[in-house]
Amino acid sequence: DAGVIQSPRHEVTEMGQEVTLRCKPISGHDYLFWYRQTMMRGLELLIYFNNNVPIDDSGMPEDRFSAKMPNASFSTLKIQPSEPRDSAVYFCASSPGTEQYFGPGTRLTVT
Amino acid sequence: GENVEQHPSTLSVQEGDSAVIKCTYSDSASNYFPWYKQELGKGPQLIIDIRSNVGEKKDQRIAVTLNKTAKHFSLHITETQPEDSAVYFCAAIQGRRALTFGSGTRLQVQP
């Protein structure tokens, strides 16, 4: 298996623009997680899905952030409008139940 | 919610020495404790984990110990090598939920 796949790997955008991050989980994994990593806050959960259904979105910063999982092999995290404070590395992870496996991340820079 | 504290924040050892990283957790209901290694520009990689019904687990040069009474767990790396240099994160979880991460330890193995 190729592992968790994320795209793009790097994204640079201007404040106010819409940003869409993409994730393909490991086949057969029922859980999908979106985490954000910053120097100030470390690794923190944004949202997670079980069988394509959002279970806990308490970590989503505000209404500018939204996530979807239209099928078992694809998820998106959208930021609209983006702000400089959204600059971070965004990780997707998938899990068959307990162990979580991370993708390579998307480094987002908002100028 | 769960709170995980990790120390030290940085650790420098000579090649061949042992390294120990310690974490404490707050939620006595947590029952799964993974350790991740993160290299520069990459996603966290699961290197070892332990469940609450086990006191110790070993995998070649890496071992993890868990003290449920004291609510702390530790990562032990023996015979360190330069390729062990990375940031290590501990985490805790209750059931099939999102991980709560420690703040990370930057390990530098000096050749």
Structural classification of chain A? mainly beta
Number of strands of chain B: 11
Structural class of chain B: mainly beta
> Rg of chain B to the nearest angstrom?
13 Å
Tell me the β content of chain B.
over 45%
**Largest sheet of chain A at a glance?**
7 strands, mixed
* Greatest chain-chain contact: A-B, 23 and 19 residues
Q: What does this 3D model show about the protein?
A:
The complex is a heterodimer of chains A (about 110) and B (about 110). In chain A, strands 2, 4, 5, 6, 9, 10 and 11 form a seven-stranded mixed beta sheet that branches. A four-stranded antiparallel beta sheet of chain A has the order 1-3-8-7, with no helix packed on it. Chain A has about 110 residues and is mainly beta. The model of chain A has no long low-confidence stretch (mean pLDDT about 95). Chain A contains no helices and eleven strands. Chain B is mainly β. Chain B has strands at about 5, 10-15, 20-25, 30-40, 45-50, 55-60, 60-65, 70-75, 85-90, 100, 105-110. In chain B, the strands form two sheets. In chain B, strands 2, 4, 5, 9, 10 and 11 form a six-stranded mixed beta sheet that branches. The N and C termini of chain B lie far apart (about 40 Å). The interface of A and B includes residues 44 and 56 of A.
